[in-house]
Amino acid sequence: MNIAQKLISGHLVHGDLTPGGEIAIRIDQTLTQDSTGTMAYLQFEAMGIERVKTKRSVAYIDHNMLQSGSENADDHRYIQTVAAKHGIVFSRPGNGICHQVHLERFSIPGQTLLGSDSHTPTCGAAGMLAIGAGGLDVAVAMGGGAYYLTMPRICRVYLTGELNRMVSAKDVILELLRRLSVKGGMGKIMEYGGPGVKTLSVPERATIANMGAELGATTTVFPSDERTRDFFSARGRAGQWVRLEADPDAEYDEEIELDLSSLHPMAAQPHSPDNVVPVSEIAGIKIDQVCIGSCTNSSFCDLMRVAGILDGKRVAPDVSLTISPGSRQVLKALAKNGALAKLVTAGARVLECACGPCIGMGQAPATNAISLRTFNRNFYGRSGTPSAGVYLVSPETAAVSAVEGYLTDPERHGTEPPYDVPERFEIDDGMLIMPPADGRNVDVVRGPNIKPFPRAVPPAETMSGEALIKLGDNITTDHIMPSNAKLLPFRSNVPYLADFCLSPCDPDFAARAKAKNGGFIIGGENYGQGSSREHAALAPLYLGVKAVLAKSFARIHRANLINNGILPLTFADAADYDAVSEGDEIVIAEAPAQIAAAAEGAAVTASIAGREVELRLDITPRQRDILLAGGLLNYTREHRED
Prior knowledge:
The two termini are 35 Å apart. Helix content is 30%, strand content 19%. By secondary structure, it is α/β, with parallel strands linked by helices. The longest helix is centred in the first third of the chain and has 17 residues, at 70-86. Strand 1 (12-14) and strand 2 form a beta hairpin. The strands form six sheets. The chain has a seven-stranded mixed barrel with strand order 21-22-23-24-27-26-25, surrounded by four helices. Strands 7-6-3-4-5-20 form a six-stranded mixed β-sheet.
């Protein structure tokens, strides 16, 4: 077996390892963050389960950190109290970004992790099967339910060679995005192997695993080997390390070869992570801002390389440089060895250990500014400034460019200064609050901004309404439900958020949906790529959207639509997508019967502007029952086993 097959087979509760079939796996651990966590815990409470049934569940506060009003602080208080009541570890604000902290403190090779964040696959760097999902799927897993998914194809990325100076793991994943695009990993697990793997540290592997989400992959896995053992030993967890490697005769569905020594610094240009070119081809662009950090590049190793490059230099006078350490452990280590002082002396603005600018929570660039970021996404408007041009680069490229004031190829700028990795990091889990053994007497505190979430209902006999909007390819969840410093505090208030649904595409969409009593959304290829935020399904649900008709769907968003009772329909003939227009009347007659038949492979027939159109609803019998029940929450309550 390969590594992915070993991980899946060890947790399989339904199905087999044949790609394309439905499987269900047992979940050992879950994680949430505060942007998605409030909704996930409201859904968990609605199930009526007293205590989580996982081996470990952790609630992180790392997204909504700016407290310009009471909303974020109220949500944090709710999450802390609900975590104590139901047996969930609580990571306090300032302890760090969920993926970095989980990798450091809770990752265990061979276990499964389900997280309400699309970058949960970061922990695949430590030999976990770590998958991002919607909050409702995570809530079900916390209650002991299995996680259902389509068995992915396994693609081996065979690495040879070794990275050259000033070339980093970020350049590895950017090169793969250049080759494969944001759709290239759909329906796949990316498994890394070959002699080149052993040259990569766990933090470097984490960068690659993290941005596997940008490929559209289900997850990314690395072996658990001697490099993994060293990572665990340095963090006082040697006893939790186990070896996990592919068998010598393991087979794969696909294979990609990549010679690490052939790589050069890369950059993703606006406004997509796969719009990648070598830095050398676009060097010389005047820059205004550099942001280093995020769950992709905020490790001790990343920031030590940055500190070495900046040592004795100054940030260009017209460049703003920010540094976001990934965890309190990283920040303390940098303070202890003097690297933090080098960053500050060079002119860096050190932000708290949080997601910050990556999710639009502060540090929005100036009008028409050029921002270099070591983050994972550069979608239009995600930075908070729609007119800004955001480039994704490595920490080395970012640091050198911050000094020069122009996008600069770091390979032409000297050597990478050496640094030492501690044999043992200082361990301080003081900002992790363990739940009491019995939480029944804990009072859950709910702020006034926490509103009931919209509940799906079983489908009507006839679904009818207008095509409310027609969209193109690669519409992201940032388009569907924008994420910025003004809206993030309202993640627990879907009625408020719904007014901004699809506003980057059409500011009048929400008002039109309300006036028309709901209807349908028309999308192109890869509809719903990006974040796992189920608000991109909850807001349309609140507005009365009955179905999304698209050419294809991103994995997590498609699951979120089904979980919330919204039909994810695909055009059987692309010409029908071309023919449909905004305002067309759409009617799906005998909807429950057609949904039931779809699970057996039948097409769904709809009338669009009087034309009969054939649509596909690719669902399993279980997903059929979820849709007919009016969503996963209703289905789970009906099938719950106490």
